[in-house]
Design a protein that fits this description.
About 35% of the residues are buried. It contains 9 helices and 13 strands. Helix 2 crosses helix 8. It is about 40% helix and about 25% strand. The chain is globular. The protein is α/β, with parallel strands linked by helices. The strands form 3 sheets. Strands 2-1-3-12-4-13 form a 6-stranded mixed sheet, with helices on both faces. Strands 9-6-10-5-11 form a 5-stranded mixed sheet. A two-stranded antiparallel sheet has the order 7-8. The protein has 2 domains: about 130 residues, Periplasmic binding protein-like II (D-Maltodextrin-Binding Protein, domain 2); about 100 residues, 3-Layer(aba) Sandwich (D-Maltodextrin-Binding Protein, domain 2), CATH 3.40.190.10.
């Protein structure tokens, strides 16, 4: 009887151990799958992220894309751990944003692509058609506003004072031969101003979201020497997390370079 009882107990213990092992296995698999949540502008950033989803899945990383339609919330959400990273801005914008919000601990970990800013119009076909007193809309944030003014200066529409760089403002205009009336507007709203102004200087992502084709519709564009490389940003200290490293590797793959070149046909340029 004692031998029989011992045998029953042994079998029961083995069975429980077996159940425990099979129950633990899914938990291990769930634990193995890492999630990375990235905030992005819908075009082209979210589209580029969608292109790397299969590659990340192979690495055991589940990608969650959170779309934003402004230039403020993605950085705040990243700092507050609502998302793990963001992909929407260039280095000059990040630098200025962190200077204005020193409590944010964010770092640029990867340059991905350049979105040449362009000048668009519903009223003229060439810049030399621009009349005296014409109205111009530009972004109202410091870095993109300065960038727009530099492009207008390159087109010889205005002249900026010596030393005015990426943070140039309308106060830095020293010559305005056509007496342009410059209006500063939130960047996402610029395409909506095209029926009201003569020209608008628009970031490529917002232009494309409004169904403008930069290589076809822009009267003038920045060239590939533009310093405004769009970057992947994470919290300081998160740079070496395995899922962040996997994200960085996927974004710098040959597949992404080919995707950008084939889909955007020069409107967006790989920066690697």
């Amino acid at each position: 009887m004692k031998k029989l009882l011992a045998l029953v107990l042994a079998v029961t213990a083995f069975a429980l151990a077996g159940c425990g092992g099979s129950a633990d296995k899914p938990a291990d698999n769930a634990k193995a799958e890492k999630v990375v949540k990235v905030g992005a502008s819908p075009v082209p950033h979210a589209e580029i992220l969608e292109a790397i989803r299969p590659e990340l899945e192979k690495e055991g990383v589940k990608l969650e894309i959170v779309e934003f339609n402004d230039y403020v919330q993605p950085n705040i959400a990243t700092n507050d751990k609502e998302i793990d990273a963001n992909f929407f801005q260039h280095e000059p914008y990040l630098k200025n944003f962190v200077e204005e919000h020193p409590e944010l601990k964010l770092v640029n970990v990867l340059g991905v692509h350049i979105e040449p800013m362009g000048v668009y119009s519903h009223k003229i076909k060439k810049l030399d058609e621009l009349k005296d007193g014409a109205s111009v809309s530009i972004p109202n944030d410091p870095t993109n506003g300065g960038r727009a003014l530099l492009l207008l200066a390159r087109a010889n529409l205005i002249k900026l004072k010596d030393g005015a760089g990426t943070t140039a403002t309308v106060q830095d205009i020293v010559d305005n031969p056509k007496h342009l009336k410059i209006q500063e507007i939130e960047a996402p709203q610029l395409p909506r101003t095209l029926d009201d102004v003569d020209i608008s200087v628009i970031n490529t992502n917002w232009a494309m979201q409004a169904d403008l084709v930069p290589t076809r519709d822009a009267l003038i564009m920045e060239d590939k020497t533009s310093p405004y490389v769009n970057i992947l940003v994470v919290r300081q200290g998160d740079e070496n997390r395995p899922e962040i490293q996997a994200l960085m590797k996927a974004l710098h793959s040959e597949a992404v370079k080919n995707f950008i070149n084939e889909k955007y046909k020069g409107a967006i340029i790989p920066a690697f």
